[in-house]
Amino acid sequence: MRCTITLLAILFSTQVLADFTGKYCELDGAETDSGEGVSGYCWMYSDQWGELDGAETDSGIEVTGECWRYSNNWAEIDSAETAYGEEVSGDCYFY
Asked: How far apart are CA 74 and CA 95, in angstroms?
């Protein structure tokens, strides 16, 4: 019984520590459809979903959108576009 309780406590604490709410991930390899680089961050509002924060193209054009976390290391940019409507894709990594 004691072993079961200890195991449950470890599993619970691991899940709590794995919560990504309130964390940033850094854009890496993100670019517009035309190939212009995009830098910035994604702020996680939940354990799996976040919004781009301070993201912009190399030429300074604002980029808005979301990111979805798929592992402990990275999230994928989703529904992101420049202020002019050009689509943006790429990944975001937690460091």
From this structure: 9
